Amino acid sequence: MSRFEIIKREDFSDVTYLLEILHPMMAKVARPGQFVIVMLHEHGERIPLTIADFDRNAGTITLVIQAVGKTTKEMQRACRVGTGLYAMVGPMGIPSPISHAKKVVCVGGGLGVAPVYPQARAFKEAGAYVIGVLGFRNKSLIFWEDKFRACCDEFIVCTDDGSAGIKGLVTEGIKQAIAMHSDIDEVVAIGPPIMMKGCAEATRPHQIKTMVSLNPLMVDGTGMCGGCRVKLGDKVKFACVDGPDFDGHLVDFDDLMTRLRRYTKEERMSLDHWEKNCRMQKQIEAASALPASPAPASKVKR
After folding, report:
1. CATH code of 63's domain
2. Between the CA of residue 49 and those of 202, 232, 254, what are the distances in Å?
3. What is the rounded CA–CA span in Å between residue 92 and residue 255?
4. Is-contact 122 101, C-beta < 8 A?
């Protein structure tokens, strides 16, 4: 049995999947906003993943993953109930500060929906009035709606095509919440950098405190490699040890997005190489599954 056994898997779409991992010790100390670094196998890449949920009683850690690169696609193929991860280190990062705010808007876009859930739940448990704003491309991609409704006093869904809730980006949901509530103390936004930038700009004119969770390139998770540095005004911080949560009104999102594109070519090459090997392996497996051809009959000279 693996040390980090997967006890549940759920697929939300063809690229988004959930893994629930048995790790009682980590589940006891995990807090909203923290992340883990995992390895699928001994020779695998180390990748950071935000903790989407934790259950102290069950002793589990939940990760919601989007298969976009070589490692996450490899995990999508290999991770099944009963299998496990080779390594999982954490919880890492500074836990999200659950302030004494009385009214909070928790915003999640795409894959950012999962990590914003523990924060929405924590704010609710702290006595805050919680407004949830979630964004998806379309209705078929919506997940965890029941979990958010259970911890949110108000719940707003935004879809790009208008198939559910408000048609438009999560910024439309933020604008609606601000229009209805003049006493919002804080906004928490998690999602793609361009989305978080939009959220910060939507709240800036109203001077509403806005916290975002950053996902720069990360190697060791201890601040030594310097790969996860981010610019906040005239300061430089490291997301793995100083974050991942930062003041969205100070973050240089343009610099962050440039850094995220820095290794696009190498990432594409790695994915192409892995997919080629997968195709070759499938061909070998298919060939080995074919019944053996009968030996040709001996020719008899007459």
Report:
1. 2.40.30.10
2. 27, 22, 22
3. 24
4. no
pTM summary value: 0.80
Beta carbons of 123 and 150 less than 8 angstroms apart? no
Domain of 190, in residue numbers:
103-260
Using the Cα atoms of residue 29, residue 30, residue 31 and residue 36 in order, give the sign of their dihedral. positive
295 is a domain residue:
no
Q: Are residues 84 and 201 in the same domain?
A: no
| Residue 129 and residue 84 in one domain | no
**pLDDT digits 0-9 by tens, 142-175:** 888 899 999 999 999 999 888 988 999 999 999 9
The mean pLDDT of 13-42, rounded to a whole number, is: 91
CATH number of the domain that residue 236 is part of: 3.40.50.80
What is the DSSP pairing of strand 229-232 with strand 235-238?
antiparallel
Give the tokens for residue 72: 């996450």
Rounded Cα distance, 117 and 125, in Å: 12
Q: What is the identity of the amino acid at 240?
A: C
For 161, counting Cβ atoms within 10 Å of its Cβ (0-12 exposed, 13-18 middle, 19+ buried), the class is exposed
- Spatial separation of the C-alpha atoms in residues 233 and 249, rounded to whole Å: 9
Both tokens of 186, joined, read 């804080």
CB 271, CB 73: distance < 8 Å: yes
Same domain, 62 and 210: no
